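In the previous chapter we treated chains in isolation. Here, by contrast, the input contains two separate entities that must be folded as one system, with a combined length of 594 residues.
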Amino acid sequence: MSGEFDFIAHVRTQQHIAGPVVLAAGDDLAILKLFELDATLVGIDQVLDGVHFDSSIHPPELIGRKAMNRNLSDIAAMAALPTAALVSLALPAGTTLDYAKRLYAGLKDAGNAFDCAIVGGDTGTWASASTGRLAVTVVILGRSAGVTPVRRSGARVDDHVYVTGPLGGSIAGRHLTFVPRIREARALATRYKITSMIDLSDGLSRDLAHLCIESGVGAVIDASLVPIHIDAVAMKGRSPIERALSDGEDYELCFTGEPGIAEAICVGRVIAGDGVWIETDGRREPMMAKAFEHAIG
Amino acid sequence: MSGEFDFIAHVRTQQHIAGPVVLAAGDDLAILKLFELDATLVGIDQVLDGVHFDSSIHPPELIGRKAMNRNLSDIAAMAALPTAALVSLALPAGTTLDYAKRLYAGLKDAGNAFDCAIVGGDTGTWASASTGRLAVTVVILGRSAGVTPVRRSGARVDDHVYVTGPLGGSIAGRHLTFVPRIREARALATRYKITSMIDLSDGLSRDLAHLCIESGVGAVIDASLVPIHIDAVAMKGRSPIERALSDGEDYELCFTGEPGIAEAICVGRVIAGDGVWIETDGRREPMMAKAFEHAIG
């Protein structure tokens, strides 16, 4: 970027000292004073041009929003609250100051929606416009704030399996505009016994498999219970149920817990053994096979 | 990378639960239990192929080492101790599992040298080998551990200005192999009144200017006191003193504090007003002009 120092100066005007932030961007490191009773959660996630977004189509505000919200979705997946974020930008040579500001505005606004300030960062520019593409990396810090973090490893046989919303077809636009399910996760974990949880980034079939592997159990999904998003119905190619099982980037939560949780959609249950299965009209088959029927057929 | 899941499986075998780490990589987020009396420090820093290293020349172990050590150098610059790190890799298409493992080994070994475990991360692969280059992003978490973090903003008139070692010519190799000055910073801040500090990544002329601007003071450097690294003497082009003032990537510390600190090298003093000046044979001129004499001449 031509005006890298201008951008850093701009970013510094956007900082505010609040909550746990003692010192925000501008020194070697940010300083936080964290609440002593909390567990601290931390993660990092990047979005890459041509992989997670397409800078030739998507406006920078939405790219920034997605980068921040993917991290906030990880906070949701553990039923935590966000504390602060840091952002690292790798900009193509020739990026304008205006573009960088719009990208940052998307990041900041998404964080602000959940009281998550950006407290630090790093900006670099690739040496050549032809070989370096935009990468946006976000670090998220979170806090348990009175709710024990929900891991992937606690699912037990006979738990029910739930999702928080309809699935599939997010590529039509929701992968950029989703809202992290932080409030939903906090409400669920406060009211009910939630035994394991993950956010649906890779698709129900793969992400539920993660929960099962970490928990040492299996799961069976009832195809008739899977909520299919209207976006998946409208799209060509694979069937709506296949899209709901495997499209990914829904950023709804998938969790296991006690039966009878009315605030989420029950889609199946935890079983002994391993593997993730789907039942359609009483016939049980491996869910990955169903999800990728067309891809491998 | 062809074996991304293999790499993640490898990384998980490298994790260990120790100190503040409650849950390391493998869930949505890592969980830390931080010591309640500490301030928490956090920063992020990336290295980009073609900017901070050259993957066609430098082995991946040294690239990983540099990425981690730049962050540990930020910890040193605040006289803190590292708590944990997270790593995000953006890999060119076609990166081999072996290459990724070597990169990670460099990161891990550098962290281990300062008891800084890697507790989480993210790995992505660019869609096209021709347009996505290697980026290594490291997040560092630190703790004050009984020493008030030294900011950039505390320099006072009549403080002396110090550096911790000889400067210039790091491009000959030291920019990859330096050792973060964490132990030196802790020893100095424990024994003496250190008023401001920064690590020398951009070169003495620019980094000292950062300290002065943040502190609202000026500084004057005595050219005869600046320690010049043998690497800067051996190199062609600019003069050794110019290299010592402006080459950057020394990763020594520059700090201000009370007179008479024998464990560091006094190079000048803090003055009222603003600007960073250099005195050579009694003649005072702006240090940036001296540093860039040839570049702008």
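The radius of gyration of chain A is 20 Å. Chain A is about 30% helix and 25% strand. Compare these points with the single-chain example from earlier in the chapter.
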